[in-house]
């Protein structure tokens, strides 16, 4: 696996993490416990920081990045991802904040200063423009994203189940190493 320091800061890994050998983590990246990083993920904590919560999975080909500080925004835009989040294949997350129990569908783009509350599904291929605030308990779809409908109880249960399934899968991978 490619874990590299940047300006003397190295990624920190929680207990039971799995990082595929083809993925790259650079700089100020902190992973919680039971996180899984799948093939070809790039997480660059170089101009700000990345924090990923417990039992979160980042799937194949996803890109995680952030925005540096500026005159108008001295703190820049870090990337913060909560617990039990499933980030689908080929997702781009850039300088945004995701709460807990979220599913980001394949190919979605979530841009700077977006805030996604807990218990949200973002549909595949959706674009969440800068500064958007997604409220808890809804499905969001489209480009640009729009609130489609409330999540039903099965969908809400699936959010935690999806994360748990990836914990089981990463445990299988770790057992093979």
How would you characterize the overall build of this protein?
This protein is mainly β and 177 residues long. It has a single domain (2-176), classed as Hexapeptide repeat proteins (UDP N-Acetylglucosamine Acyltransferase, domain 1), CATH 2.160.10. The protein is built from one helix and 19 strands. The chain has one helix at residues 153-176; strands at residues 2-4, 18-19, 24-31, 36-37, 42-52, 57-58, 63-65, 79-81, 86-87, 92-94, 97-98, 102-104, 109-110, 115-116, 120-122, 127-128, 133-134, 138-142, 145-150. Strands 1, 3, 5, 7, 8, 10, 11, 13, 14, 16 and 17 form an eleven-stranded parallel beta sheet that branches. The chain has an eight-stranded mixed beta sheet with strand order 2-4-6-9-12-15-18-19. It is globular and about 45 Å long. Pfam families: Hexapep. InterPro entries: Hexapep, LbH_gamma_CA-like, Transf_Hexapept/Carb_Anhydrase, Trimer_LpxA-like_sf. This is Gamma carbonic anhydrase family protein.
Q: What coarse outline follows from CA principal-axis ratios? A: globular
- The CATH architecture assignment turns out to be 3 Solenoid
Q: In whole angstroms, how far apart are the ends? A: 12 Å
Our count of domains comes out at 1
Average pLDDT confidence is 97
Helix tally?
Answer: 1
Low-confidence stretches: none
Number of strands: 19
* Share in helix: 10-25%
Indicate the CATH class: Mainly Beta
Oligomer: single chain
Tell me the CATH superfamily. Answer: Hexapeptide repeat proteins
If you consult CATH, what is the topology?
UDP N-Acetylglucosamine Acyltransferase, domain 1
Find the structural class using helix and strand composition: mainly beta
Question: Strand count, sense and closure of the main sheet?
Answer: 11 strands, parallel
Radius of gyration: 15 Å
- What is the percentage of strand-forming residues? 35-45%
Could you give the order of the helices and strands? EEEEEEEEEEEEEEEEEEEH
